[in-house]
Amino acid sequence: IYKMSQAWLQMKELGNNQFKNKNYSSAIDYYTRGIEYNSSEPVLYSNRATCYKCLGRYKESVSDYKKAVQLSPRNTKNMKKLASVYMLLGNFGEAQILLQKCYNLEPEDSSHYYELSRAKKMVEDYEKINEKVKEQKWEDVEELSKKLLNDAPSFKELQKIYIQACLELCKFTTIIDYINNSVSSYTKSRDGLGGF
User: Fold this and answer.
1) Are the C-beta atoms of 140 and 132 separated by less than 8 Å?
2) pTM of the full structure
């Protein structure tokens, strides 16, 4: 049993070293091996989730953060990390629920209130964008969706709305630049050179 407990700790440290050097795929391998030794340690899932997030692999990131929260349901740090991925993906409702839990668990921590307010504002902004789409006020749609994409760059529905607004306004160069930047960010995250 002692060797097992030492093994997962060693894998965690090796993973942490790889993470510090931005070798996210290698870090994932070490955290995964650590989980094989100790599948009930939330830090392994949380650390691996962070690596997935850095690589733009949000589905895996969400899965691992959920597991970390499940194993340690009062750990607000993991809840906030999961909420941050939800916000990147435009899943503001899920983010709000988690941030409300953080605030309820630690009301004295003002960062929880700030993040909860930020998530609520993002929901309001998205609703405003949808109203402007219905009204076909494409200049407003373009401006509002571009701002919200800074906080939720992987929100697919919002990306489509932004591109639609640019098409309606015949801003083809803007669309091409946006797509090139998106592809460039995706390639960097996929190759482990960073992410958005």
Assistant:
1) yes
2) 0.81
